[in-house]
């Protein structure tokens, strides 16, 4: 692991690190905020998964998470959204290839060799974080924005017991029925239908999500039709799942929206992590 | 004036606008956060002047000001740091020319035709803001980061009575004695010495600052030697000026530092603006 930068921030340290990932076969970069007092014992960890076109950096500098994580003594990790580099497949579209890993393990050419973001998050980066930093593996929570909201909900549903709470900002809720999902699942997995195993709405319908869930989505989200919030809201209510879905009047898809509700999300996770 | 974007943010609106400036002879872009409830009457205005290489956008997306401004019902304007465009002089160095206006009116070629940031801020943009938006001209405060901290203190000192409070994050404190200043004053004004009229330390020594001042600077600021905080601290103490200079242990020059202390600065200005 290599330290790229460390900046003091809200009493803690915002670091950026890189490491060789077995899952992706590439070097991967991530941001990690460690709160003040981390030396006194392991601290809980919140995962923040980012959306299309983002790197580890966008949320780290724009979402305002550190202020609130510092209040609760919580670490926050900001992984990248895909493998990157010259030997890594890519596509001209902003929503396929580098910057658009969709948090699945690709099975199809040319993506299969490197696009293994589910394994990267749940195995490689997890192993690295808990071996290198004073983090408490028993107290993990997960959140994300847009494609990262899809990642947060689906990775939590696919790893029962791992995350005590799950939240999402404007998540892609039903990608196997959306243009934000069908194309990517076809490319990475061979068919849009293969994506149902990685679709928040489908997973919730099967009762796979075992952690409390908080979702915020703006009523003026410019990508509202692609998110399909209504499908997940229906599935959650039908399953009587412990969930809150808030439609926030006038907000759009930007970090101005994300940062506005960050305090609520971190308080929600802090409550679950304190139990 | 043209609206480039408007995003709902912390109950208010973060807008980006452009307008033709007489002072610079160019189109200028600025960000403006208007808090919720602005329609009920004019609200106070905090100016945030940015540092070298920044546009109107950096602080607007990274400094975390809106969260705190929203709490106090305060507007925040984020001006650009220089004129820009094809017909505008520039230099290869990051600290001269476009992105490095230093908040003075240039008198020398090739800068004089467009580099008039003091007039732009104090006249053009001021006139536009108070005619186009429900802002209270009697309740203005000013802050800034690095070169923008220099701008905040010096523009306040040069316009007595206009700003009720002044603050700065890691300001350039004594530019006429620093490599961040001497080169620029020589280029824009003809000599480093001409910069003493635009130097926070020199202005404070003359008793020109009539508003309370708050400064935060990190002990690990990588540009600490260029800032010359010690000169301004000495001048403030010698003048018995109403000022607080805080050296913050372990912090550097980044927005991670700025965002950490933003809440304190906005609370400081809110108190002055409530009087």
Automatic annotation (TrEMBL), chains A, B:
Signal peptide: none annotated. Its EC number is 3.1.2.12. Keywords: Hydrolase, Serine esterase. The keyword Transferase does not apply. GO terms for biological process: formaldehyde catabolic process. It catalyses: S-formylglutathione + H2O = formate + glutathione + H(+). The keyword tRNA processing does not apply. It is an enzyme of class 3 (hydrolase). NCBIfam families: fghA_ester_D. Serine hydrolase involved in the detoxification of formaldehyde. Belongs to the esterase D family. This is S-formylglutathione hydrolase. The lineage of its organism: Bacteria, Pseudomonadati, Pseudomonadota, Alphaproteobacteria, Rhodobacterales. The gene is fghA.
């Amino acid at each position: 692991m290599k330290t790229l930068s460390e900046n003091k921030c809200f009493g803690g340290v915002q670091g950026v690190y890189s490491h060789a990932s077995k899952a992706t076969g590439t070097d991967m970069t991530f941001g990690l905020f460690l709160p003040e007092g981390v030396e006194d014992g392991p601290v809980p960890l919140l995962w923040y998964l980012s959306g299309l076109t983002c790197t580890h950096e966008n949320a780290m500098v724009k979402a305002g998470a550190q202020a609130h994580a510092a209040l609760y003594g919580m670490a926050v990790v900001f992984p990248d959204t895909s493998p990157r580099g010259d030997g890594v497949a890519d596509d001209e579209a902003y929503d396929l290839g580098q910057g658009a890993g969709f948090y699945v393990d690709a099975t199809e050419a040319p993506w299969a060799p490197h696009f293994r973001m589910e394994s990267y998050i749940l195995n490689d980066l997890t192993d690295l974080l808990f071996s290198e930093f004073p983090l408490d593996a028993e107290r993990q929570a997960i959140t994300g924005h847009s494609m990262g909201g899809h990642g947060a909900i689906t990775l939590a549903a696919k790893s029962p017991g791992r995350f005590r709470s799950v939240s999402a900002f404007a998540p892609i809720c039903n990608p196997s029925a959306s243009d934000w999902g069908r194309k990517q699942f076809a490319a990475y997995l061979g068919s849009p239908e293969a994506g149902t195993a990685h679709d928040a709405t489908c997973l919730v319908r099967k009762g796979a999500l075992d952690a409390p869930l908080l979702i915020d989505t703006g009523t003026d989200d410019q990508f509202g039709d692609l998110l399909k919030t209504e499908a997940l809201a229906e599935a959650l209510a039908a399953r009587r799942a412990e969930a809150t879905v808030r439609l926030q009047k006038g907000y759009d898809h930007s970090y101005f929206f994300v940062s506005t509700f960050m305090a609520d999300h971190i308080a929600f996770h802090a409550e679950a992590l304190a139990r």
